[in-house]
Amino acid sequence: MSKTILDLIGNTPMVESKVLNPNPNVKLLFKLEGNNPGGSVKDRPAYNMIRSGLERGDFSSSSKLIEATSGNTGIALAMIAGIYGLDIELVMPENSTKERVQTMRAYGAKVTLTPTDVGIEGARDYAEAKVRDEGYVMLNQFANNDNWMAHYQTTGPEIWKDTHGEITHFVSSMGTTGTIMGTSTYLKEQDSKVQIVGVQPTDDSKIPGIRKWPEAYLPKIFNPKKVDTVLEVSETEATEMAKRLAKEEGIFAGMSSGGAAAAAIRLAETLERGTIVSIVCDRGDRYLSSDLFD
Question: Is 172 a catalytic site residue?
Fold first, then answer.
């Protein structure tokens, strides 16, 4: 049966850690979201936000869409907007890797870079001003229920099915928090004892894709009651684990995936037994112009 590229979103594989897992009584599984066609977990919410928004009539083919992004969501939106023939502008801090900028432009999106010193918050402010002053439509991944619902409908069910309902712990880095919100909601409905572990950076660390948001910018879709435990990882831990994932497990991924893996391994050391699923949210090739793998 012939498929479109959109049919390839989701149903990503899971692989078992054979080297990094420190506990033989614990099964540690990595869910490889880089296998999505756009290269990251963000293909799921991007597709759901665009498809559902069009179906509801929130915007149309003549609308001008805009979104602030740290990278992966922007790539996914650029790919899917291009397929639907939509006009989209993506706003990112100017220190974003050139691979991300070039990929978005390759898919046909307009890319606007905002000053590094104001971070993703500044990019969000720019996008909101365009909505307010120029009639743009913002998908707003930080407040759009279609974001977390994508994971409730796909990521959670896939993990439950592929672990045969044996998952005991789910580990995910927290950025927009859509992945952890949607997956938590589904897994808790299947078994309330499944522990949901969110990963944040330590106060002095900057890890692309993982944030500890100021209160004013906290994603509206985030519900702290859906996260049982929050583990903090340092920039050094996340970087070193991204390198170890590639070298020792053959999993080439970015820094936020390294952060989640570091937290999952730390968690495994504390358990008598269990099955941990950790999200590997993207591929490492979009970080090659950074110093991550130097």
Answer: no
